[in-house]
C-alpha cells in the first residue's frame, strides 16, 4: 500500500482516513446516546460522524464504536483498535486487513 502524501490525500474520497502499510487510520467523531447506531456523515470535513445508542461511561461508547465499525466493514473486532481519544468524542482508530478502496465501497458516503 502506498505511503500517505499530499497528492494521494487529495484523491482520497474519505477525508477522515489515512492509509499506510497494511492499515488505515480513521478519524471519527462519536455522538453517544443517539436514538440509533448510524453513520451521520462527515463532521467538520475531517472526521467520520458516528451516532451510537451507547452512553459515554466506562468505555461503553468506545466498545460500541469498535463493534459498529467491525459490523459495517465486515471485519473482526480484533482488526480494529482505538489508538487515541479514549475519553474524547474525537478518536483515531486503526483498521487492519482492508484497503482504502474497500473501505470507500463499504462506507458508501
Helix content: 25-40%
Fraction of residues in β-strands: 25-35%
Q: What is the domain tally?
A: 1
Number of strands: 6
How far from one another are the termini?
22 Å
Q: Specify Rg, calculated over alpha carbons.
A: 13 Å
Q: CATH superfamily, please? A: YggU-like
Tell me the CATH topology: Conserved Hypothetical Protein Mth637, Chain: A
CATH class: Alpha Beta
Would you identify the regions where 5 or more consecutive residues have pLDDT less than 50? 1-10
Please provide the ordered H/E string of secondary-structure elements: HEEEEHEEH
| Number of alpha- plus pi-helical segments | 3
Largest sheet: 6 strands, mixed
Q: What shape does the CA trace take?
A: globular
Description:
With 109 residues, this protein is an alpha+beta fold. It has one domain (26-107): YggU-like (Conserved Hypothetical Protein Mth637, Chain: A, 2-Layer Sandwich). The chain has three helices and six strands; from the N terminus they run αββββαββα. The chain has helices spanning 6-11, 60-73, 100-107, and strands spanning 17-19, 23-31, 38-43, 47-51, 80-84, 90-96. Strands 1, 2, 3, 4, 5 and 6 form a six-stranded mixed beta sheet that branches. Strand 3 (38-43) and strand 4 form a beta hairpin. The protein is globular. The relative contact order is 0.21.
Amino acid at each position: 500500500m502506498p505511503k500517505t502524501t499530499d497528492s494521494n490525500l487529495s484523491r482520497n474520497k474519505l477525508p477522515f482516513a489515512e492509509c499506510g502499510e497494511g492499515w488505515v487510520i480513521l478519524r471519527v467523531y462519536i455522538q453517544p446516546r443517539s436514538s440509533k447506531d448510524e453513520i451521520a456523515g462527515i463532521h467538520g470535513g475531517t472526521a467520520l460522524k458516528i451516532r451510537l445508542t451507547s452512553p459515554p461511561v466506562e468505555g461503553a461508547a468506545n466498545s460500541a464504536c469498535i463493534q459498529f465499525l467491525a459490523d459495517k466493514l465486515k471485519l473482526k473486532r480484533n482488526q480494529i483498535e482505538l489508538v487515541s481519544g479514549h475519553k474524547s468524542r474525537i478518536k483515531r482508530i486503526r483498521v487492519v486487513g482492508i484497503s482504502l478502496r474497500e473501505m470507500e465501497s463499504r462506507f458508501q458516503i
